[in-house]
Design brief:
- This protein is of the alpha+beta class.
- The protein has three domains: about 140 residues, no CATH class; about 100 residues, Helix Hairpins (Orthogonal Bundle), CATH 1.10.287; about 130 residues, Heat Shock Protein 90.
- Helices cover about 55% and strands about 15% of the residues.
- It has a six-stranded mixed beta sheet. It has a five-stranded mixed beta sheet with strand order 8-10-11-13-12. Strands 7-9 form a two-stranded antiparallel sheet.
- A hairpin with a 6-residue loop joins strand 5 and strand 6.
- It starts with a helix and ends in a 6-residue tail after the last strand.
Length: about 425
């Protein structure tokens, strides 16, 4: 996983938690606002009861009652109804001994409230009872439960929406801040994509942020160690190939002389020895070409017919389309084709057909015995994972390495008969 991908995953987790936190805060504010609203409404009932009790205590028969109050008629009948400016919000009743309704507001019910002093819940009402005198008269101030629920919802919803809005603003700010903090990491990733530790003086230099300096230092140290190791391996391989090529050429020359001078019965055996030496020469040449080129490709148009005419076929009939041209590194392409043709010969093929199914691709089909599907799939998995040792032969390994040096890969194609490979010398489109 790349550095920007790790940063984006952390950022998504942080932003996700910020959203959860905002919702949790909004929920907590909702609950707290509901509870505070209930307490406030109860306090309002209490305050209203004390104000009304004071007004009732100050009223007398000679003085008209204060606004909002009225006395009941002297004759027996329904209790006096008082015009209440606050109707629709609160209601009140004055209940005498024997639960007789003496006075009520417009919004109060006709049925008298009977409850002890203090707060009580009666059906659809929340009331506060306050004794008026020693005779047992009670003043009740009440509010419907529906109005209380509506008030709770309004207050709680407003508070929760405000908290959620603040949380969302914080989320937006946090996203912008995270994007700003991840920008140096994205730039570092782009620099790493173009970084070549094998170039002289290659290094990432000073980090944009102090927090990234240990990462860049560790990457530079790792790149230097890898460059040294790759350099040593390339130097060893090149020296070994050069050291082997000269004596092999001498062996081939001596075998040619011995083949001319040897008696007829020994010539077939000497010919097989010479063929084995020639094959070893081709392998060494392929190794030399592969490690000579390294990551530096010398791409140019290559005519396959002219190239194959210079390759030893060892009795193998090779069919090439006329004027077939491919853009590739000629040395590396030669190394790959030499080993693929040698593979075909060693496995019993007598004819190989080359084709260009698409730009940057070479396909080889031979008439050998081929391999079964499980074996072909196992070989392909080893090539895809580049776990060559113990799974693929030298020919397929070198061909795949050449393809990867060009940005492609080697594919083993399913065919009803023989063996087919496709050498992709460029990355697939898209």
């Amino acid at each position: 996983m790349s550095l920007p991908a790790i940063g984006r995953r952390l950022a998504r987790a942080l932003l996700g938690w910020s959203v959860v936190w905002s919702l949790a805060v909004a929920g907590a504010v909702w609950l707290a606002a509901r509870e505070e609203t209930l307490e406030l409404l109860d306090d309002t009932l209490l305050s209203s009861a004390h104000v009304l009790a004071t007004l009732l205590a100050d009223g007398n028969a000679a003085t008209p009652p204060p606004e909002g109050l009225a006395r009941p008629p002297q004759a027996s009948g329904p209790a006096g109804v008082v015009a209440d400016p606050g109707a629709g919000r609160f209601a009140w009743q004055v209940v005498g001994p024997g639960a007789r309704l003496q006075m009520r507001s417009v919004a109060a019910p006709m049925q008298p409230w009977v409850a002890p002093s203090g707060y009580s819940s009666l059906d659809t009402w929340r009331v506060y009872g306050l004794p008026l005198d020693a005779s047992g008269r009670m003043l009740y101030v009440g509010q419907t439960q529906a109005e209380r629920v509506e008030a709770q919802a309004d207050v709680a919803l407003s508070a929760a929406l405000a908290a959620l809005a603040i949380g969302l603003l914080g989320h937006v700010w946090l996203r912008a801040r995270v994007r700003h903090e991840l920008a140096p990491l994205n730039r570092l990733s782009r620099r790493l994509a173009q970084h070549d530790p094998l170039q002289a003086g290659a290094g990432l230099g000073v980090a944009e942020r102090a927090e990234l300096q240990p990462v860049q230092t560790a990457i530079d140290d790792l790149a230097r160690r890898l460059a040294r190791r790759i350099g040593h391996e390339r130097a060893f391989t090149a020296h070994a190939a050069h050291a082997l090529r000269t004596p092999l050429a001498g062996i081939d020359a001596q075998l040619a002389v011995a083949l001319r001078e040897a008696p007829a019965p020994l010539q077939p055996r000497l010919q097989r020895v010479r063929e084995a030496a020639a094959r070893l020469q081709r392998v060494v040449a392929a190794l030399l070409a592969l490690f000579r080129s390294g990551a530096e490709l010398h791409l140019q148009p290559v005519e396959l017919a002219a190239l194959l005419a210079r390759l030893p076929a060892d009795g193998l009939a090779v069919e090439v389309p006329p004027e077939a041209t491919l853009v590739a590194d000629p040395d590396l392409l030669t190394a790959a084709l030499v080993n693929l043709l040698d593979n075909a010969v060693r496995h019993g093929a007598r004819r190989v057909r080359l084709s260009l199914p698409a730009a940057g691709r070479v396909r080889l089909d031979d008439d050998g015995p081929g391999v079964d599907a499980p074996r072909r799939e196992a070989l392909q998995q080893a090539l895809d994972a580049q776990t060559y040792e113990g799974h693929t032969g030298l020919g397929l390994m070198l061909a795949d390495m050449v393809a990867r040096a060009h940005g492609g890969r080697l594919q083993l194609l399913p065919v009803p008969q023989g063996f087919a490979v496709e050498l992709s010398l460029q990355a697939p489109a898209g």
